[in-house]
Specification:
By secondary structure, the chain is mostly helical. It is built from 7 helices and no strands.
């Protein structure tokens, strides 16, 4: 194996490890929220530093790779995509941490299970975890055939988000005493919607790297 190939393999290994960690963070955020598990939420917060360390290392290693080897074509696209994907994974982890802090710090009592069901919170989490996991599979297998499937799930996320906003608004109109808790829940659902956007952007980077096609800004 050439030295450049070895360095590229190390880059891919790092982004893969970071990806798995972020998937785990999001899965734990789901469990912490649905079960009001404060101990699990604290574990998520403590693991955030590992995600940040991965991003810093990947950024530095990618910059060094470009400076030392002047990659072109697919190699350059891969390095640029890894840098951007690392940044987006870090943002997803930030939102997961935000959900964990909501569980830890919120002065709300556990939301009515019936309201949780109406808001489709579990389905929203599951869709996001699926998007993030499918993106990982697409990257590892260098297969962009599932990119459309992943992007379609982002539309599902948006539908759930807008529906949840309407449901919460009606709920708070009838239960004004829960307005603070309701507003905090709105912020949390907005974090989840943003995770969907980042998963979508990750897919765009994968397509750019593998197929040399630009999907952002309506290109898809």
């Amino acid at each position: 194996m050439k030295h450049t190939e070895m360095e590229m393999k190390l880059l891919r290994d790092d982004i893969s490890q970071m990806w798995k960690l972020v998937i785990s963070q999001l899965e734990k955020a789901k469990q912490a929220f649905l079960n009001n598990d404060i101990d699990l939420a604290r574990e998520i917060v403590s693991r955030e530093k590992r995600v940040d360390a991965f991003e810093l290392k990947i950024d530095s290693d990618c910059e060094n790779y470009i400076a030392l080897y002047s990659p072109v074509a697919v190699d350059l696209r891969l390095v640029l995509s890894i840098m951007k994907i690392g940044s987006m994974l870090e943002r997803i982890a930030d939102f997961s941490e935000g959900i964990a802090r909501h569980v830890i710090e919120s002065d709300c009592k556990k939301l009515d299970p019936q309201l949780i069901e109406e808001l489709q919170m579990e389905e929203l989490f599951d869709t996001l975890i699926s998007m993030l996991t499918d993106g990982f599979v697409a990257f590892e297998s260098e297969n962009t055939k599932i990119s459309g499937k992943i992007m379609a799930k982002d539309e599902q996320v948006d539908e759930i988000y807008h529906s949840a906003m309407r449901i919460l608004t009606k709920y708070l109109q009838k239960n004004a005493e829960h307005i603070l808790c309701g507003l905090k829940t709105m912020v949390l659902i907005r974090k989840l919607e943003r995770i969907g956007d980042h998963c979508n952007n990750i897919v765009e980077e994968i397509v750019f790297y593998i197929d040399a096609k630009i999907l952002k800004h309506g290109g898809k």
